[in-house]
Amino acid sequence: MIDSLFMDRHPGGSPDTVTVLWCTTDGDERRKAHTLVVRAAAGLLGVAPSEIWLEHEAGGRPVLGGAGKSLHVSVAHARGALAVAVTGLAPVGVDVEVVRRLRAAAMSRAWLDPAEAAWVTALPEDDQSVAFLWLWTQKESVGKALGQGLRQGGMSRRVPLPGQWPAGNDAPSVPRRLPGDPGVVSAAVVVGGGLHVIGVALHGGTGSASCADGVRLDVREVCPTELG
Q1: Residue 8: which region, alpha, beta or left (left: phi > 0; alpha: psi -120 to 50)?
Q2: What is the pLDDT of residues 32-65, one digit of tens each?
Q3: 142, 181 Cβ separation under 8 angstroms
Q4: Tell me, what DSSP letter sits at residue 169?
Q5: Is the pTM for the entire model greater than 0.85?
Q6: In whole numbers, what is the pLDDT of the chain averaged over residues?
Q7: DSSP string covering 46-80, please?
Q8: Is residue 7 in a domain?
Q9: CATH number assigned to the domain comprising residue 63
Q10: Looking at residue 163, what DSSP letter applies?
């Protein structure tokens, strides 16, 4: 079970880690994502799930009530997939996308920063859709971590380009500072044998070294049958 797994392995939670859980699902992604984030938080804190509940700020950002107030969380769902992020470090954002064929070159030129668009369009055509989603999920996550979504030029906000490509499946890159915004870090991982992309971001405030350096991602797939 999710709860015992976290109580056994992560009592109190690791202070430098963002825990990311994801799974595929055959429907009701929103409810299952809410269940997963509460149970993950309960496992990290070593308390019963009944001691934690999920609320939302006026702008829609999810927050935990009860025993979970010390944690920051984010929730994402796409058709047939969901992901949650839990950490005690700082405001966090997560996004998940199903890999599918896109008009990635045209979309990159229309919406992304020119340097990002140049990177996507220079890749082989078969890689471009995944690469676009690798950037897109990070931008969505950054917007969530900042509490403003993609408003105020969120799509053109630059995120770090990968050190190498293709990114290894199920091997998250190390979160890195956003160009021009050292208080935010982001990363992405291709999971599920290349079928999904998850982006994660953390907002530690201007010049926050603690949230920009040494952050680890603990990304795990969980069994959807555990969510009811």
Answers
A1: alpha
A2: 999 999 999 999 999 999 999 999 988 788 999 9
A3: no
A4: B
A5: yes
A6: 86
A7: TS-GGGEEEEE-TTS-EEEEETTTT-EEEEEEETT
A8: no
A9: 3.90.470.20
A10: S
